[in-house]
Amino acid sequence: MAYYLHNPDDLRGNTHSSSPYEHFSKHNTQKKAPGPEYYSSLSTRTLEPITTGTSVIGIRCRDFVMIAADTLVSYGSMAKFRAIQRISNVGENTLIGASGEYSDFQAIQVMLDELIIRDKLHDDGSTLQPLEIHSYLTRVMYNRRNKFNPLYNQLVLAGFRNNKSFLGLVDLVGTSFQDETIATGYGAYIARPLLRSAWRDDLTQPEAVKLLEDCMRVLFYRDARAINKVYFSSSSPLLFCLFFEHKPRPSHFSVCYEFC
User: Fold this and answer.
1) Catalytic residue among 15, 29, 44, 46
2) For residue 246, what is the DSSP state?
3) CA distances from 142 to 93, 137, 155, 220, 250 (A)
4) Is 51 a catalytic site residue?
5) Which residues have a Cβ under 8 Å from the Cβ of 31 and sit 6 or more positions away?
6) pLDDT in tens, the chain (260 residues)
7) Three-state DSSP class for residue 86
8) Cross-strand partners of 169
9) What global pTM score does this model have?
10) Fewest CB within 10 A of the end CB: N or C in the chain?
């Protein structure tokens, strides 16, 4: 037995009715696509870190400060960007390294560039010290945390000024401190005990490079977001050196897979 769907108007004797699909077309008209005003009103804050870098480690000695970070920025759990510099210079005598959301670190770099430009425009012969930049970032991170719009980063500040070395950390809620050894991310659990046990105030730069390289090797073995491609950056009273300033190839350390 077959059943046929009739137009209700035909059943009531309405002979001038249109197509039986007219009822559905009236209620399913296509809406106009939203304009740019709609999208500009949407929130653009970081809601969840997705493009992230892992540990940054640092050591402060009497004559210099040195920090190290690998070049991997992961997209979720995928090792997607393998040649990203997560250490940069701020002004003339400060280094900054970041773990966490890379886009937030780029926003912080823009803030610091503007800060350095404003400071130079005063033309008073004074430049910002590492401690002052560390204090500034502490206030910025705490302010953003209070607005429930944090910058998802852990920042390592290093520098040398007035024959004094400086090494400090600021996290996404504005917590800050200074110490002889610092590590962020997974390195805070694995690399920092190694740094503490080997630290001496009279370490030489080659010894510090060897120590940081050993720590980065351990992180490569145990941290799923690390690779064996590392930048080392140093600040000293005789030399302020960013090893990647002229974009040479970063250091590759040897690894042994028998113990992984």
Assistant:
1) 46
2) T
3) 24, 8, 13, 31, 34
4) no
5) none
6) 444 444 445 445 454 555 554 554 555 555 667 777 766 666 667 778 999 999 999 999 988 999 999 999 999 999 999 999 999 999 888 999 999 999 999 999 999 999 999 999 998 888 899 999 999 999 999 999 999 999 999 999 999 888 889 999 999 999 999 999 999 999 999 999 999 999 999 999 889 999 999 999 999 999 999 998 888 888 765 444 433 333 334 666 555 544 43
7) coil
8) 156, 177
9) 0.77
10) N
Q: Chain centroid to CA 17: how far?
A: 65
Q: Which amino acid is at 125?
A: G
CA pair distance 201, 236, nearest whole angstrom: 14
141 with 39: CB under 8 angstroms?
no
What is the DSSP annotation of 161-196? ETTEEEEEEE-TTS-EEE-SEEE-TTHHHHHHHHHH
